[in-house]
Design brief:
Elements (H helix, E strand, L loop, with lengths): L8 H9 L5 H10 L9 E5 L5 H10 L4 E6 L10 E5 L5 H11 L3 E6 L9 H22 E12 L4 H11 E7 L10 E9 L2
Parallel strand pairs: 1-2, 1-4, 2-3, 4-5
Antiparallel strand pairs: 5-7, 6-7
Bound molecules: S-adenosylmethionine.
């Protein structure tokens, strides 16, 4: 069985660098290759608290870019220039607020959303599936043609069906595991490029 070491190298490095979470290293790894983020880019980050991804994304787009984050939990000390919204992405009114803050189309939608686990596998999988499906629907609405999405998906019985849904909307798809994910974690990341419709 995998061991869980809460104070591993990524945890310590995040503390040293003053980053709000070890999750920052996951997005660094995911955007390291290719042209997913550029200066002046426009990004929406779903499930953004406590703000590790926001810190990396804000730095990557620079002062001429735009980053809007949303989470159930309020983000304390969001990076300068980042707009954060406290709310539930399953609520259409909250998604409208995100669209309004974006005021235009996005080049990239990221989603690290994960449900609070109940310990009841069937319920947790269904909730997780609903969140990924909602994130994808949001991306379809918010992305400019040719845009990209990075989304966390947990390995489950629904995994292949969900990857199939991404393929309907993006011309290129990769599925990756990150080094900064906790050992034994079932989380994977879809990197979807060339948004079609
Ligand atoms: C793994 S954490 C995200 C970490 C973040 N990427 C970072 O770098 O700090 C997952 C987040 O999803 C959020 N979340 C779960 N369900 C949500 C929902 N329905 N709407 C908005 N956020 C949600 C949780 O509150 C939690 O902060």
């Amino acid at each position: 069985m995998a061991t869980y070491e809460p104070r591993d190298q990524f945890y310590r490095k995040a503390r040293e660098l003053g980053l709000p979470s070890r999750a920052a290293f996951k997005i660094e790894e995911l955007i390291a290759r290719g042209d997913l983020v550029r200066k002046g880019g426009r990004i929406v980050d779903l499930g953004c608290a406590p703000g590790g991804w926001l810190a990396i994304l804000a730095r990557a787009v620079g002062p001429g870019g735009l980053v809007v984050g949303v989470d159930l939990t309020e983000v304390k000390n969001a990076p300068r220039g980042v707009t954060t919204i406290a709310g539930d992405i399953l609520d259409p009114a909250v998604r409208e607020r995100v669209v309004a803050a974006l005021a235009g189309k996005a080049n990239l939608v990221t989603s690290d959303v994960a449900p609070k686990l109940s310990g009841i596998a069937v319920r947790d999988e269904a909730r997780s599936h609903e969140l990924v499906a909602t994130a994808l629907d949001f991306a379809i609405r918010a992305l400019a043609p040719g845009g990209a999405m990075i989304a966390k998906i947990f390995m489950s019985g629904e995994f292949n069906a969900m990857v199939g849904k991404f393929k309907e909307h993006f011309a290129k798809l990769e599925v990756k595991r990150t080094k900064a994910s906790r050992p034994g974690s079932a989380e994977l990341y879809v990197i979807a490029r060339d948004f079609i419709r």
